[in-house]
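User: quick one, fold this
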Amino acid sequence: MRPRSSALLSAFSLTISLYSQGPDLVGYWHNWNDGNAPYLELSQVDPRYTIVEVSFAVPAAGSTSDMVFAPAETAPATFIADLAALQAQGKKVIISIGGANATVHLDSDAERDQFVSSMLGILDTYGFDGIDIDLEGASVAISGGTIANPTDARIIRLIDAVNSIADQYEATNGVPMMLTMAPETAYVQGGMSAYGGIWGAYLPIIDALRSRLDILQVQLYNSGSMYGIDGGIYTQGTADFIVSQTEALLQGFTTNGGYFAPLPPEKVAIGLPACPNAAGGGYVSPAVLEQAVDYLRGSGPQPGTYQRVATYPTLRGLMTWSINWDAVSTCAAADEYAQAFEDIFGIGTAVQDAPLASVTVWPVPVDAGVLHVGGLQGGEDLELLDAMGRVVVAERASSDRVELAFDLPTGAYVLRVERDGAPVLSRRVVVVR
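Assistant:
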């Protein structure tokens, strides 16, 4: 095998650059079987989705802070292998916290620490690239303070918890944790009409974590009418709603809790339902979506009455609820949203070769000094690299399975597999001793 002293650092650099590039198609993958939008295996996700947000990690029964997750209809080992296969194609797979039916409260420092510990456990067990914050209902509310200086203890503890998770993730894995948020409109743009309760409640969280935030993807659905920064009122399910609510994030706005500073377009994605039945309201046809996005990016005419302030050619992309709904043909055309993304942003469907999906790696994390690699053909070269990019274990496969035995300290490593000189797999491996 040829030497690659900088292989791990190059892999980490690629991962970091992927966090800041775009455009991206973000899709929520829901972990249950809905008769109208059935359960999908991760291996069935449309290849145009670049970021898959697994829904949801929720509190264990009787708790509001001890987070749990398990795939509902897939064996854990298969789920982990499928997740790794998506990552090997350059995609990101993250775990979403909460959802509409789960209440997350951090009512003490002990609960904050439990939340941190349980989320780190989920990240490590499955190999997720980061977290998405999708707290709704009673999970997030404000009673005072300002955007810059919140006073609600639950909000402060949540901010502290996310910072702690991100710090520990990066210390363990050597790469930044991906962070996205998907609040409803009332929690963000709603701050223009009121600041209290749910109105504007996400603004202190976004503001405190904006340097870590990769994508803000406000749910432009299941929403009442909302103010734009021009003082007009706009209704969901229209191009004007998409443009006005997106530009509010890109230009900033004033609230009774202070000024919310704008986000760069690279951190803003447009969130919409994949088809009419995926949400209670807010669906738009692909043609309307294209008109709104083209206008925002400066490549199309004004589609309604709202007049934009500037153009945003580097807008991050689109988000949808959900991948499962997008896949069915009984709600709209199958994969309509993914096709709209391709048509608007000019992104094709190319993925890496199928052999990537056949390779499985277990256990994750490794705690017994033996890493099993299956799904091989024989003749592959396997290397385990440390944080300096040095090869610490190397072996050539003589059959469909290899057991890499080692005595290594706790830390993050990268497993690389090559077949006939071509890369087959690059996978983060965490060793816990």
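User: anything notable?
Assistant: The chain has two domains: 18-345, 355-431.
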